[in-house]
Amino acid sequence: MLKWEGPFFVLRGGVMARKPAKSWDDQVRLLVDRGLDVPDVDACRRFLIAENYYRFAGYARYFQKAPHYGDDNFFAGTSFGQISAIYDADHALRDALASQLTRVELLLRSHTARAVVDECGPYERYLHDDFYLDSAGTEPTVDACLRDIKRSKERHILRFGGGEDDLRRELPVWSAVEAWSFGTLSKCIERGGNGRLVDRVASSLGVAHGGFASRVRALVYLRNRCAHHSRLWHHSVIDAGPTPNNVRSKAKRLAGGFDPRSILDVVASLDDIVVRASGGAPVLPTLLEAHKAHTAFWDGLRTPVSPKDHVA
Fold first, then answer.
1. How far apart are CA 291 and CA 45, in angstroms?
2. Could you read off the pLDDT of 102-133 as tens digits, one per residue?
3. Burial (0-12, 13-18, 19+ Cβ within 10 Å), 126
4. Number of neighbours of residue 23 by Cβ within 10 angstroms
5. Burial (CB count within 10 angstroms: exposed 0-12, middle 13-18, buried 19+), residue 153
6. Is the pTM of this model over 0.70?
């Protein structure tokens, strides 16, 4: 017998029941059977073929009566166009954020290399374990650094040879930072120089020191969600950084109130770094112009909630 537990049906004894695969026509039929208004069946089918039913379902849950209790029926009057419009707006938002996140990632690579040079010089020291203030039970930062470097196929890395001794001795930090993933770069900023590097990087960028490492982690998190085409609408940021109060207040005067774990809070932090460090243009005003008139979408960015909060 099936029993509902959270988002899954499970068999007694704890074994999850496997769902049968459905054709694209069956997927459209399922949406219609659950009460979704689909005036153009062919357009809906083409959408699901291109985008994946499972991804679409993450948005659709906000229009269903109580999916966490197993009631996947849609609220009366919900249309496919209503949900797909929010899906498309979320896609456009990820595209808009991608260029700004790229800009700040490059800034962080450049300023981190400069901070390492000022802290310990450009060679050797930054590839030794005792340069980093690692927490017990975590992967040593230098292991992540070396793994990313060895994985690189770029000529500016390969010309130093593949042996660890050669890399430690000869590879300059300004070359190494280009091989590190954004996540590894974030770890280096937070832990490098036995915890001193983070303040050097913040000073170099001209931004507040307090909570800077956490702000960088939040940017990595947001960048990864954008890169993997993950939903931003109604998404609460797990690794939210402590955006400075003056930065948050300025953004709220422009955009209205928003939750401290909302995507907009990370965007405010992102804009602050880009504007202060490079004089670049903030992205939040552009997002406002493009999306604020779409009330349902904007509200889902400002105050994200879980679909489990929707009870019939």
1. 26
2. 999 999 999 999 999 999 999 999 999 999 99
3. buried
4. 9
5. exposed
6. yes
